[in-house]
């Protein structure tokens, strides 16, 4: 076989990127594949770089193209003239070679180091395979291609195979993960909706369909029917969030969905390895785009804001990014069912929203008749109108009339009115029939097991395995599972499933669509049924409700193999333990045994500082509230209530949900002050001050900051005294009161030296706040020393946020000194670290600093396009979340960027997503208005300078 010779073409994006390329080249050479890169040369080649590149590429049997965004920009000529000449020259040689070879290519192979870079593969290379080095098997597949060693050898035929045709056989999917509930009964109507689905799947440029309707309208049944009659689905991921509960204000974690989807689609990434939630969403979108895939997200409303004044925005950032990405590009189709429209998908070109109505009267009558209901046509029509043509209510009614009253439609008058008007207008019809079932089962001792099983299903917000129900059966809980034998349980399952159609079995599916025996049978019913019977058990038999949840708490808390799980995936049983333990009223046990010790890990705050898992932490915190985020559970001591209020506020603030965070933080401050819990009061008032500052109420932030210092002094806790002084000083700095701010910073540093002499300077967040003011004073040299000192401490403890903030300080200091390469390196690290930390609240600071660096024409590598991209991300975070100080900084920096572009016309036009008439004057006016409204006086000199610039 001829000698293999490989050359790697890449762009020097960063030191880390260069190291990745070197590692790949070294590995190839060690595996006897001759590989060349420029890093192996000592200085410049004797013939010069252009001739060396041409010669080395001509000699190579294969050229590996390391694809990144910057590489693609240079290939496409989007970089500033004079930069990236090597990449441009190599790409021209590549394009010419492919062109001369009649567009055939077996030599130039695209390689990526992370899955999200697949979109940066140059067009001439997209027709072939690319190799993702983040996947475990990609290096082997690359080597097999280079060395012509196939993964499998085609066998010789042993005889002719004859298979008779089997008309009507449904083809199996390559990946068939179907978590959509099985809905009993015949299907009627929905002709237009079925056509909509068929046309979209056939390829009419629709990328996302959302069906919007109240619970029980028939959204899931529509999808179930369409799925069962659609044969050409190559890849299916169908997940039901609706099974996690019908309450629209519920806080639900999307982590289990992402863990499941990544596993089914073959991702090698751990759920905790993503830098940001947005990266997680992008990764799943990229995986789906590798196939003609069908993604179904059923019952999305628990992940949406549905309270008064909200517009159906998604709470979960990863799901939000997934849907935005798929709306922009999708090789398959995404289908959503929800009670409220997804705000982020409104007015999207390739998204179709369908308001699903109740059944027609004619189809409603057919539904009743299919269930064995009999009567005159007028009586049937009157009945369906009484029940609003509501699909679930009619299904329940039809089954009840057939099973108990021989299908006589007139006997519906025997159903009593609802004892309590629970649920919304559409669900009350269904609840009325459920109440009739409850009365029937309760009146017949032979049906006690059926009623008990429905009550058990009401304990859960998801499908449940029989082995978990066995735990409850074995407990012999009085008035619930006591005295009911195993045979009766099985008979009850069969009856509820086959006779009453209230229950269905769910079998986990493998990738070939076959039932997985390893997962065991799961039982489930419509979420409204679980909601009703769960509420009845809680109200009528509170002791049984609590005992059952207590058993489940004890079951789930011992499931993890590790006492302290490392990842979110390993931690999922602990989150289930929190849910059931709180439902049992075991708040103190849950806090001491699981939440504080194994999830948050006391002062380590593991979910915050190590995982950046604020959404999952908030979902757990929600169980300690009666009304999120206003009323903690009555069974909590007041100090724990304050702890939960503060934790909820902190999670919400980190997620960028600032308006929601305000109420729990204010409540925590008031409660802690009233009870004289001075340490908690100091923390709460401090967090409130920081929140008020970002929301743009500087005057209130100053008042809260002063209170936090007073409370800290009364607590006599040295750390609280130091940290609350620096936060208050930072607020004063933003208010333009520099002299007072400096006094408090100096006093905090003095306390630091007295109380912690081994660390005589402020560090972590406190050091960052101090350095921010020093940078405004032009003290770059002092700041560099302080930031390096702080970084040594924060790295030792692996505090994700604090490390990123120290890197931000170093980047800003180097920028102010004019050291642009160092500034670029530190700011890139900072933005990446801020993403990884999960603190949406602090991220705009890093993005603004990097935008400033890329806007500055003194920087030889300035990049207006990237500056626009960073500022767009600032706007996307700040504007919907009411971060008015960040929004002010955005407008000031946008004005400076637009002025710089006007003075450098060869640069690219505005790509921010706003109108082409965007002008510096408009941004300056908006910044001026915000400064006046917020009291953000620190920015007055910058505002004045810009006003003078555009005026002169």
Characteristic terms for this protein:
952 residues, alpha/beta, 6-stranded parallel sheet, 5-stranded parallel sheet, 38 helices, globular
Rg for CA atoms: 31 Å
Globular, elongated, flat, extended or rod-shaped: what is the shape? Answer: globular
Q: Unreliable runs, pLDDT <50, ≥5 residues?
A: 158-173, 244-249, 507-520, 906-916
Number of β-strand runs: 16
Mean pLDDT: 84
Oligomer: single chain
Structure write-up:
55% of the residues lie in helices and 7% in strands. It is globular. The longest helix has 20 residues, at 884-903. It contains 38 helices and 16 strands. Helix 23 runs antiparallel to helix 24 (638-654) and helix 28 (718-734) runs antiparallel to helix 29 (738-755). The model is unreliable at 158-173, 244-249, 507-520 and 906-916 (pLDDT under 50). The protein is of the alpha/beta class and 952 residues long. Helix 1 links the parallel strand 1 (5-9) and strand 2. It has a 6-stranded parallel sheet with strand order 6-8-9-10-7-11, sandwiched between helices. A 5-stranded parallel sheet has the order 2-1-3-4-5, sandwiched between helices.
């Amino acid at each position: 076989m001829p000698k293999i010779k490989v050359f790697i073409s890449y762009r020097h994006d960063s030191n880390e990127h260069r190291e990745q390329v070197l590692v790949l080249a070294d590995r190839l050479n060690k595996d006897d594949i001759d590989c060349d890169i420029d890093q192996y040369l000592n200085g410049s080649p004797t013939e010069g770089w252009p001739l060396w590149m041409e010669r080395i590429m001509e000699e190579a049997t294969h050229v590996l193209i390391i694809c990144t965004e910057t590489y693609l920009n240079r290939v496409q000529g989007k970089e500033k003239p004079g930069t990236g000449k090597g990449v441009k020259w190599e790409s021209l040689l590549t394009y010419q070679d492919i062109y001369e070879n009649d567009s055939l290519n077996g030599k130039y192979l695209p390689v990526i180091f992370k899955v999200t870079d697949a979109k940066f593969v140059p067009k001439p290379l997209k027709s072939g395979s690319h190799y993702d080095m983040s996947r475990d098997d990609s290096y082997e597949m690359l080597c097999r291609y280079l060395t012509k060693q196939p993964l499998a050898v085609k066998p010789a035929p042993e005889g002719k195979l004859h298979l008779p045709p089997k008309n009507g056989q449904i083809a199996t999917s390559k990946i068939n993960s179907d978590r959509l509930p099985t809905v009993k009964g015949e299907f009627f109507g929905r002709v237009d909706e079925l056509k909509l689905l068929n046309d979209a799947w056939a390829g009419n440029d629709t990328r996302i369909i959302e069906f919007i309707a109240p619970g029980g309208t028939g959204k899931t049944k529509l999808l179930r029917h369409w799925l069962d009659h659609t044969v050409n689905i190559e890849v299916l991921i169908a997940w039901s969030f609706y099974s996690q509960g019908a309450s629209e204000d519920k806080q639900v974690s999307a982590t289990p969905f992402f863990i499941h989807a990544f596993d089914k689609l073959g991702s090698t990434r751990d759920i905790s390895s993503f830098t940001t939630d947005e990266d997680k969403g992008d990764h799943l979108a990229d995986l789906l785009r590798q196939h003609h895939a069908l993604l179904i997200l059923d019952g999305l409303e628990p992940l949406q804001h549905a309270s008064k004044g909200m517009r159906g925005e998604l709470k979960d950032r990863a799901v939000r990014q997934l849907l935005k990405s798929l709306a922009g590009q999708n090789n398959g189709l995404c289908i959503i069912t929800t009670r409220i429209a997804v705000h982020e998908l409104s007015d999207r070109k390739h998204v179709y929203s369908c308001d699903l109505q109740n059944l027609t009267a004619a189809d409603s009558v057919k539904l009743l008749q299919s269930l064995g209901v009999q009567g005159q046509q007028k009586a049937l029509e009157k009945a369906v109108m009484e029940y609003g043509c509501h699909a679930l209510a009619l299904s329940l009614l039809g089954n009840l009339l057939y099973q108990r009253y021989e299908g006589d439609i007139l006997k519906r008058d025997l159903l009593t009115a609802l004892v309590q008007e629970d649920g919304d207008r559409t669900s009350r019809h269904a609840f009325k029939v459920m109440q009739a079932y409850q009365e029937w089962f309760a009146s017949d001792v032979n049906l006690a097991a059926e009623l008990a099983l429905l009550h058990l299903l009401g304990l859960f917000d998801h499908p449940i395995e029989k082995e978990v129900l066995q735990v409850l059966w074995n407990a012999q809980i009085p008035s619930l599972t006591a005295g009911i034998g195993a045979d009766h349980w099985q008979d009850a399952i069969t009856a509820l499933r086959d006779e009453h159609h209230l229950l269905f079995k769910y079998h986990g599916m493998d990738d070939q669509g076959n039932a997985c025996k390893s997962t065991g049978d799961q039982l489930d019913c419509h979420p409204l049924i679980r909601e009703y019977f769960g509420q009845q058990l809680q109200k009528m038999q509170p002791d049984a409700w609590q005992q059952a949840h207590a058993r489940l708490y004890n079951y789930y808390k011992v499931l993890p193999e590790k006492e302290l799980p490392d990842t979110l995936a390993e931690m999922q049983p602990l989150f289930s333990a929190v849910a059931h333990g709180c439902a049992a009223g075991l708040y103190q046990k849950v806090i001491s045994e699981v939440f504080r010790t194994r999830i948050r890990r006391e002062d380590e705050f593991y979910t915050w500082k190590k995982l950046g898992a604020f959404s999952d932490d908030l979902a757990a915190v929600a169980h300690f509230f009666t009304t999120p985020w206003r009323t903690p559970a009555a069974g909590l001591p007041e100090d724990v209530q304050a702890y939960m209020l503060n934790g909820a506020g902190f999670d919400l603030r980190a997620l960028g949900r600032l308006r929601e965070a305000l109420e729990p933080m204010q409540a925590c401050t008031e409660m802690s002050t009233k009870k004289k819990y001075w340490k908690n009061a100091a923390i709460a008032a401090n967090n409130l001050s920081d929140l008020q500052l970002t929301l743009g109420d500087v005057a209130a932030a100053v008042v809260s900051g002063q209170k936090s210092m007073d409370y800290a002094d009364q607590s006599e806790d040295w750390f609280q005294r130091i940290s609350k002084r620096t936060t208050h000083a930072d607020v004063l700095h933003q208010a333009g009161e520099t002299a007072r701010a400096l006094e408090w910073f100096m006093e905090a540093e003095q306390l630091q030296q007295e109380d912690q002499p081994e660390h005589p300077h402020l560090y972590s967040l406190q050091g960052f706040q101090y350095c921010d003011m020093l940078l405004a004073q032009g003290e770059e040299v002092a700041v560099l020393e302080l930031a390096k000192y702080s970084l040594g401490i924060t790295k030792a403890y692996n505090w994700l946020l604090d490390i990123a903030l120290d890197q931000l300080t170093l980047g800003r200091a180097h920028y102010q000194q004019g050291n642009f390469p160092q500034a670029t390196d530190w700011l890139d690290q900072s933005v990446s670290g801020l993403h990884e930390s999960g603190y949406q609240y602090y991220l705009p600071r890093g993005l603004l600093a990097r935008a400033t660096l890329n806007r500055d024409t003194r920087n030889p590598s300035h990049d207006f396009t990237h500056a626009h991209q960073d500022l767009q991300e600032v706007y996307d975070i700040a504007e919907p979340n009411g971060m008015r100080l960040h929004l002010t900084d955005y407008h000031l920096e946008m004005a400076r960027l637009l002025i710089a572009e006007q003075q450098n016309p060869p640069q690219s036009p505005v790509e921010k997503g706003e109108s082409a008439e965007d002008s510096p004057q408009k941004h300056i006016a908006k910044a001026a208005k915000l400064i006046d409204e917020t009291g953000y006086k620190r920015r007055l000199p910058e505002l004045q300078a810009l006003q003078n610039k555009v005026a002169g």
